Protein: Phage holin family protein
Organism: Pelotomaculum isophthalicicum JI
Amino acid sequence: MEGILSLIKSIIGTLELSHITNTLLNVIIPALSAMAIEYLRRRLGTEKMQRVKEELLAKQDLAALAVRFVEQVYVEIHGKDKYEKAAAWLFARSSQCGLKLTEGEAKGLIEAALRKIKDAMGDEWGKQVEQK
């Protein structure tokens, strides 16, 4: 008889332990899932930001090349005509590289590249412009 009582107590204890374990698992599993999802979301967001940053750097490099190219090849034209040549070159090269540009982006990138070159050259830029 005592063996049966001991077995029943053991089963009840196991059931209570099983219930507690199930309750804990019901809390822990969703929490771990939420943490894993958040980690993946942040990780993917970070990777996307890195790709955007790399794409912007590539566009900036192409814009600087466009400005230098136009300055070298089209010395006889100035102003808007020179900008249009730089923009056309930039659109062609960015398309070859699989980069998409809007007209506004192209204008901003070319203007920024030109400003950077002018700042780097300082007084030399003005002297070269006067000589032309």
The chain is about 90% helix and 0% strand. Helices lie at 2-73, 79-96, 103-121, 123-131.
